[in-house]
Design a protein that fits this description.
single chain, alpha/beta, two-stranded antiparallel sheet
């Protein structure tokens, strides 16, 4: 069981704090061999917004945890407490993976953990973070950044994306997707997706691409083109690209490739199918193509990924893929 320590002090944002508790403090989803042991670490009683918390341990409890999470810091114009900064720095020095949610990046920056690294925070505060900490390479256009065990996220929904990314690293794509479905959130948003899009959140069923995403997911084994997607959406390829960019922050082909890779991850984890069969089931065509894109996207070859995240008892094959992985409406693709 992996120890996760959540740093809590006065002045934390309650949404991100509660979100982390929901992901790492709930019971294990189906398919997980083990789960996390969550502890709240802070000085005495803590107030987060209108909520009062009783920490399990003091801030010294951060040291020894495998993962330390720092929720959003409510007032970025106020320096975070020195004891919090020192505790986060000590945990990282002791070998912990450290992640911040939203403006929690200001705590990591104050601790010096972001010096020489890429990082992000809520788009409204990226300029301030960059000006205040010039040794940090601030990327204002992404949902989250994973820089060698020091992770930062944008605001609200992107904090969930980062938490699911951590689950995916620890337990694999299938478990992360199962947890996402339980939480009714999209399981597929990568860190490089744009955190700020120009389209306001549409009403359910009210976006031009609302029906396209599940249509594509049912056809990942087929050689789909931009023209195929545009024809299904009943618009020109140019209009499709504009709608895709505004809704997802990426291009139709890049989004499609991401879905194929995610499907390949699930099949590698949960079936005995060969890489050739998985390449066919995910529309990659050949094992060579799958290996090239998989290694570039995930960072390891498919065979190595399977050895790391192999489910104990395969229950299905790519010829019988089981329940459809639903993406939900376009609302799930847009960060709040």
């Amino acid at each position: 069981m992996t120890a996760v320590a959540l740093a809590v002090t006065d002045g934390m944002l309650h949404f991100e704090l509660a979100l982390a508790c929901e992901v790492f403090g709930s019971h294990a989803p189906d398919g997980a061999d083990s789960w996390y042991r969550l502890s709240l670490c802070g000085p005495d009683a803590v107030r987060a917004g209108r909520f009062r918390l009783e920490p399990d341990r003091g801030l010294d409890g951060l040291v020894g945890a495998h993962t330390v999470i720092v929720p959003g810091w409510a007032d970025i114009d106020r320096a975070p407490p020195a004891e919090l900064v020192d505790a986060v720095r000590a945990a990282h020095k002791a070998g912990a993976r450290v992640a911040s949610l939203c403006t929690g990046a200001f705590v990591l920056a104050a601790a010096g953990l972001l010096d020489g690294r890429r990082a992000t925070t809520h788009w409204a505060h990226t300029r301030v973070l960059a000006e205040r900490h010039p040794r940090v390479t601030v990327d204002p256009d992404v949902l989250y950044v994973d820089d060698d065990g020091v992770l930062t996220s944008a605001g609200k929904a992107a904090a969930m994306d980062l938490c699911l990314h951590l689950v995916r690293l620890d337990h694999g794509s299938a478990v992360a997707n199962t947890l996402a479905r339980r939480l009714v959130v999209p399981p597929h948003r990568d860190g490089g997706q744009a955190q700020f899009v120009t389209t306001p959140v549409p009403a359910p069923g009210g976006h031009p691409l609302d029906g396209l995403f599940p249509w594509v997911m049912r056809r990942l084994d087929r050689p789909l083109t931009v023209e195929d997607l545009a024809r299904q959406a009943r618009m020109s390829s140019r209009h499709l690209g504009r709608h895709f960019r505004s809704a997802t922050g990426t291009t139709p082909l890049q989004w499609l490739l991401t879905q194929r890779i995610r499907r390949a991850q699930e099949l590698l984890e949960t079936t005995d199918d060969t890489v050739d069969a998985i390449a066919t089931a995910t529309g990659m065509g050949t094992a060579t193509t799958l290996r090239r894109h998989f290694h570039r996207t995930v960072g390891v070859p498919p065979d190595a990924y399977r050895r790391t995240f192999r489910a104990r008892s395969p229950t299905r094959s790519s010829t019988n893929p089981g329940p459809e992985v639903r993406l939900g409406s376009v609302r799930g693709l847009i960060d709040g």
